[in-house]
């Protein structure tokens, strides 16, 4: 609302000034990215912003102390080096002006001008190195770690609070639901089976009948025809655990051409594909392929080799689909199968397209060729999945991806704000000219003020604020920090010296706050993954699955092994005529850890701490845990959140 | 032992080769720093090394995955940019050789060559920026955070294990001691008062009688003349809590010249000094002083001002000593009083020395003048202590200092190893010449191989491995990371290209492992400080102190306030004739949180989790918690550890 009001005011002022011919700055543009936060699907982003707001007071004190330390060291530097008549490597006066010293030492905190800023003093006397070493230890190592500590501590506190609130809300809503649906049964208050099923159908319409039946059997353990309060409250958690229903279907080919598919040759082939050596062979092929990629491809043999490798990869996928049931192979949780198939077919398409273009126009299309190269290298990633230890790390990384998008959003908002300000301040001041340009001052980025500057010498002319895309890339480079002082000095030279404040502000907001939150988030996600154990509810489901004889022996089977296992179950059925009770021809399996979000894990960790009888604090108390929290609509969405 | 054997072997080989006139490398020099670990007072350093060793396997897997990602991206870069005939800003070929690409991209991970490494590709096509952005996100942000997460996780796990072991050992030894000293008393087994006192005298000979009496009253709460098992076991903790015995002595001057000290003028003066405004006045003086320091001091007025400020500061200290009891003012825990006095008197001495030298030799001594400048600025730090929020952060920082020395030791060992290797590899290859030197190749650091290199252009010649001190400074600059590739390229140019491996190895060991442990340590120390509450034992002591009427009202009083309080107590005694029971004219106070070590805090946190009845696992089990742990000698040293 405030943002809209501000925008309208600004529009009015701009309009009025326009009438009088005054060019004013549309300052409300800066406010616009705030709409991104409010309108987009951005609950996570809002949460992240709330987390930042809560962190601010505490970080402010550390920041003030840090600034004090910086000012003190600058004063010392002025006294120690100011009257030595030293010069920098560029021949400029060294440490004469207090404000310039403060800026130089702030840059040193980010390590971007180390060791250049030290060299003139160091050349004068080796002892002066001690000053810079003390400075770096105090400011770069201790204070920057302190910032991370404060941000991480607050992030964790805030996260815990939010999660606790969600958990209590869920508990509360489930009890409310129970009170609405309850009926008397003997002395107990219970929910009867029919109502329960109706509820589950309503709440989660897309789960299968067999899955619902399984959940009922867990909730109504003794098959009494009703669900008591304690089991009912667990329903949200039960629904939340992904149970994969694996239909023990036979392969479509086995149904269509049973004779061929069941023949000795076909069985042998499928046996080969299922063998461990098949994976090893393809790992070896990938390695050989890597070498071929690295070699020069002008030699005709090597460019033919590419076709051979493509053919090998396509064969692999076809063989796997022949061996394993296609719907299981392309199941929702088979990340690597999808990855493989998409990469290979994209590479195939692009390579064919490129070959066609080449034969018709005699030229390679650069874009298509680039894509071919990238796809070709991406294929190699698959080898990571063959090594158990790597897979664990990869799982953590894949788990982190969804929440990482939140930070993408957060970064986008901050970038937008700074890009708009940057374009207002620096638009058109710096131009990029191609290397063969004859424009005046082409080497100084079209601006004589940059003559002999590090900015022009580093050929940074393309880093400018002339359009949105360029601004984003400049901001990305500033986030990476290195050489940011060259940018700051360059842009200050073409405008005014206080323009450096823009770059310092960006550093504080982006690097000290947001990057630290990002690091906190990765740390937390990693620790949660590490301290992960199976929850009670999950164990209950698994037990029931086993009891019903519909389980896969281990739930942590590797994908290939799992499929093997399914197949061998099928074989048993075929061979021994189904001695095991497999009433519906399906097995259940709890989805592997790999596809859980960090939030869900945290919530579960917290819930393990609340006893089941605890109904949690009252609604007002929950809401007062932090005044600004959003209240989710229904129990299901809460638990998914 | 292994190190000694290796050294002897090496010495023998060296001797033999020397006889035959062959110059061999004394490779065992590298082993020598290991003696530092074993012989010095370095239990903490050994612990840190154990922690690193335990972290290695896990970090290796992350590192391999990181290397895989690096090699993949390098391959992609080779394919995308290798055949574009691009040139770097220095006019060198861009991204042609695979190994060079790997090195360049490794440098980009450390952000040291951003954005230079991107510019040629970016100038060619804006789209190529996406490649570098993806690279930085994956490798710099995600993988480097993952390293921190792995190191931190292991650090915490290991620390917890060690602390747990210490806590169990302490409990166990105390029970053993109890069993040795116990006597029967009715149905209970107890330790009688006399024996208990004897034991305390033996174990802690330097605590005062009154303090011992206080501990006895806590252990033998009902004054039954003996201590039971439960209270006995707590003894180590009781001894461990610093109780400051403040003797309510009157000021020496009050004893020597009671008439003058008690006069109205003297009372008024002391009242003024104790007033809050006195502190504010001096804060204002410090700020004015800061401005004067920043101004040019050639003006005679300003150099006189320095004398005025010195006089003001000395007056302040004298006034305080006049007002407060000197032994309390210079108590062990009065950090800032000590700091103030030392700084001021050092500044006074140096300034007088400088003035004397100037009047006799007409020249300022540069060294003394530098020290005067530094001391002058350091005085300003005191202002931090006036603001409550800053003081909390400062306390954390001061608490961290002792353990930070461990990292100093760790860093020293690593630096020694690398300095020795570096001196073997690069000794004398690069020379530093003063600016006005006429030596050949003075601008190329005496080595024509460096012509036109960034190393020579950056005037880095003084960064060399010609002696130990220089090597340390170079390694410090490499730890800060920025421009390390310039060093690596420079030293590779004057020797051989594989010399770059030395710099990469240093980066992996120092930055990826040791700096991350340092950051982990600061994070942990900060979290422990934050989650700190008073322990049970501490509360018991405090309660007893209050019960006995020998307490200071608040134990978290600020230093000044505390002294005020003491004085006013004294006044009460003087004025009202001692209405309160103050039998021995002394008060106790639990030492403030500021002087506790992180280890002690952690140990206390863990102990809160063990119930008092739990005797802990058996000795073998404790030792098996981790096989290589050192066993402390006596219960007291354990709890101090």
UniProtKB/TrEMBL annotation, chains A, B:
Pfam families hit by this protein: Ion_trans
A single MF term (Gene Ontology): monoatomic ion channel activity
Entry GO CC: membrane
Taxonomic superkingdom: Eukaryota
Keywords: Membrane, Transmembrane, Transmembrane helix
Compartments where located: Membrane
Entries under PANTHER family matching the protein: TWO PORE CHANNEL 3, TWO-PORE CALCIUM CHANNEL 3
Protein name as catalogued: Two pore calcium channel protein 1-like isoform X2
Higher taxonomy: Eukaryota, Metazoa, Chordata, Craniata, Vertebrata
Species per Swiss-Prot/TrEMBL record: Pipra filicauda (Wire-tailed manakin)
